[in-house]
Amino acid sequence: MSKSRGQWGSKVGFILAASGSAIGLGNIVFFSANAYKFGGGAFYLPYLIALFVIGIPVMILEFGLGHQTRRAFPESMHKAAGKPGEFVGWWALMNACFIVFYYITILGWVLGMLIGAFGQLWQETTPLKGFAMDELANPHGYFFSMLSSWKPMIFVAIVWILNAILVRRGVATIEAAVKVFVPLMWIFMIVLIVRGITLENGFQGVWLLFTPNFEVMKDAAVWQGAFSQIFFTLSLGFGVMTAYASYLPKDSDQTSNALLTSLMNCGFEYIAGLAIFSILFAFAMVPAASTLSMMFFIVPTGISQMPGGDPMVMAFGLLFFLLLLLAGLSSSVSLVEGLASSLIDKFRISRAKAVGLFCIFGFVGSAMFTLPQVVNPGLENDGTLGLTLLDLVDHWAFSYGLLIVGLLECLLIGWAFGAKRLRAGVNSSSRFNLGSWYDWLIKLIIPALILYVLIVGIKGEFAGLYGSDYGPNYKDGFSWMVNSPQFILVGWFVLTVGASLIFTLRGKYSEGSQ
Amino acid sequence: MRSSFRPMTLLAALLLTALAPTYAWAGIEPAKKFPRNQEPVNVTVTTTEDAPAAGVDLYATYRPGSNVASEQLVGKTDPQGRISWMPVEAGLVTLRAEMPDGSTQTQNLSVIYSEVPIMGLLVMVIAGIILYGGVIRGFSALNKLPADLPPDT
């Protein structure tokens, strides 16, 4: 007996959920940090090109796969390419698992900052314990004081409970939530833009974002950054889009869905870029080219300098952190759903059990990144053990894991399942038919581009493994861990590959399950 | 059941709170808060005792903190601690002075564009049309279909 799968209540609900999944913390802050890192206008044109060359085609692939197999990612990949495919599917989810652990830790910190935005965050300094300095100017002081306490553990628990509530009835509860969250996110972002561009010379920031610098565009690193950004921002390589598309009826138009979801995501980044760059320009703020720095220090510092007095500062501070929380939640629920639906599909357990187990396990995982021990009292780097672990794990799981999954899924679908077969399935219910060019994009061009980005990244690691320069600033007690980025690399690889192998080899999918 | 959530009402209310003017700042001080690209601006460098820092090397880093940063040696300050600097690029800039005592002073500032950059305007408009035109077209196509999805059988 097969239990019927849930289904989206409306097409708009599906689009909002898929775009809500894609629109996350990365769109609001990572895009702007990345765009600045690679020269603003020099980045935007390569980014737009990457959207059409790599982003939308892979989104069509993931939607098409879920739609044709009507299963979560591992089983979809199993149906498409057998056991090797299933292994890639589980590996994508194990990576997503690591990412959701620290993603929810970050959301816990966002919740802490949201609470601080009611007043404490806007005071001049915050006293610190355990660090080399007795106090530190805000927002840095507030942030590190919070990180070195156990409070974020409570915030993380709250965020996991919210996730459990939002996915408890699958697409029904997710759809209800995103119908409120996604419009709210757009509204809050529009308000931030209006505030940003009406600051003195705020609009000049817009030119900084869009004016191309062709000299800088000759640098291959700019293109590498743009292609990576598109992959990450569209939530590709997580298996989420396949899981979401598996809940669509058989006659859904996957080309239009992919186009709409991708354009909405990048449209949101467009306005997020306008808001953030106008604030950067108006207050001459130099971002440290890191998401967390932009999110917790740069933008809050800009907000604290806003005219209109304390009420205005508080209002925009609350607005910004609420926006981050909503965007983060709409993405984290999709990751939790992607994992939960895969467990349900393979091990035939109830949704309540799958969600409950995963959320408890997830809380323990997130707690690792919340560890408040001060390991870097001088704050030359990350400060606490939790933040250091997050930094290192994020580097491997996010910068490499997703791209490797993307590469393998394109090769397996392109060559083993057949790009032509996938295309025929997509075209059967689409208004816009994909031509044979799509096959070559999936089979050759996109894998070659991903491989190039990976090789450039790995070449950089030989010059100095990520995190290997941390050592001298850290306390002895944890130096074995933070002095050994190899430890984190091996740990991430063994855990994700090991768990994927176990999930692949244990249990069997029932034949013809629909 | 229809939701009572009204996004446009909330947007209008929030927009009403989103308008007003700006602030103030402090070692390396340009004569203008927002220097203009390709227009010379006087910069005064002072020591921590607020005395003019004479003979100090001043550098301008364009796109500071990015992977594509570039540095320009502006020159040495005169006995009054002043120097004339002509920005060669609009955007974020960090001015850095190497002080005689070996310390370094920095000041971030924004250099405004001397005129509206046509290419920037073009990219902004074209990107906007592609992204939002596509979204509007996509949603209108969705609305042409029945609101409720067919049964999943």
Quick gist of this model?
Chain A is mainly alpha-helical. Chain A is built from 18 helices and two strands.
Helix content of chain A: over 70%
Main β-sheet description of chain A:
2 strands, antiparallel
Intertermini distance of chain B? 24 Å
Overall form of chain A = globular
| Strand numbers in spatial order across the main sheet of chain B | 4-3-6-7
User: Which architecture name of the largest domain in chain B does CATH use?
Assistant: Sandwich
Fourth-level CATH superfamily of the largest domain in chain B: Macroglobulin (MG2) domain
**Which topology of the largest domain in chain B does CATH recognise?**
Immunoglobulin-like
Number of helices of chain A: 18
The named CATH superfamily of chain A = Hydantoin permease
- Strand portion of chain B, in percent? 25-35%
Say how many strands of chain B there are: 7
Instruction: Provide the β-strand percentage band of chain A.
Output: under 5%
Order of helices and strands of chain B: HEEEEEEEH
- Give me the Rg of chain A, rounded: 22 Å
Which structural class do the helices and strands of chain A define? mainly alpha
Strand order of the largest sheet of chain A: 1-2
Continuous helix count of chain B: 2
